[in-house]
C-alpha cells in the first residue's frame, strides 16, 4: 500500500492563503526565498485585488502546495506518488525534485502571465454537474458548431465535467444543460484552460524550458492529463508544458492511483476539492486534506499506511 500527494488547480485559491499558512520555520524560509527570486513581496499576492491576476493565483497555489509538502517532508514522511491538476502538476514536479523551487517559481510566473495576457477578459471555465461526459460532449459540439470557442476541459468525476471557452459560448452550453436537468457553476478561473485556445502559449513555454536542466523525479509522477505514470524527465516536461491546452482527466488519474495500490491520498494546501472527488474511488482507503487535518494526524496516517 502507498500514499499519493495531490495538488489542486485554479479555483482553490482564497484570500490570505499565504498569510494563513501554518506557523512553521519553513514557511518564512520559503516565502523569503520566493520574494527574492521574484523580486517582489509574495505576501501581497494573496490579497483580493492581486488574486484577480492569473499569475498571482498560480504563484499562490504553487507556494502553498510546495511549502505544505516541505513541512510534511521535514517530518520524515514522503509519498510514493505525486499528481497535480493543471497548475498543481507544476507543484508536484517541483516537490519531486524535477526542477528547483526557484525554477518552478519563474516558470509558473511565466505560465500565468502568458495565459492572462492572451485572455484578459471574456473567458473562463464552468463546471457541469449531474451530467456525464457523453452528454456534455454533445452539448459542447452543438454550441461549437454554431459559434465556436467552447471546449471540454476537465473530466473531474463521472458526473462533474468542466467546459472552457468564451463566456457567451459557455452560457449557451449551460442553458442546454439546465434544460436537460443538469446544474452548472462558474469557476473562479478567468482564462480558458485545457483547450486549443492556449496552444500558442504552450509553445512559448517550450522555448522557455529549452535550457533548463531537469532531474529524475524522486517520487512517481502521475499525469493528471493522461492518467499515466511518467518516468522520463523529457516526458514530464512535455506533460507540464501542454497541460494548459489539453483536457484534464482527473477521474482516471485517481482511479489509476487506486489500481496501483495507493490507499491514502493527501491533498496539500490550500484545497479540499480533490479530496471530495477521490472519496468515491477510495472507498476502502483514506482521503485527507492538509487544510482540515492536524499535522500530527497527517503524519500518523502516513506512518500507518507505510507500515
TrEMBL record:
Primary enzyme class: transferase
A Pfam family recorded for this sequence: Acyl_transf_1
UniProt entry keywords in alphabetical sequence: Acyltransferase, Transferase
Malonyl-CoA:ACP transacylase (MAT) domain boundaries: 6-306
Origin: domain of life: Bacteria
The reaction(s) this protein catalyses: holo-[ACP] + malonyl-CoA = malonyl-[ACP] + CoA
Record InterPro entries: Ac_transferase_dom_sf, Acyl_transferase_dom, Acyl_Trfase/lysoPLipase, Mal-CoA-ACP_Trans/PKS_FabD, Malonate_deCOase_MdcHsu, Malonyl_CoA-ACP_transAc, Malonyl_transacylase_ACP-bd
EC number: 2.3.1.39
Family affiliation: Belongs to the fabD family.
Name of the molecule in the record: Malonyl CoA-acyl carrier protein transacylase
Source organism of this protein record: Acinetobacter albensis
Originating gene: mdcH
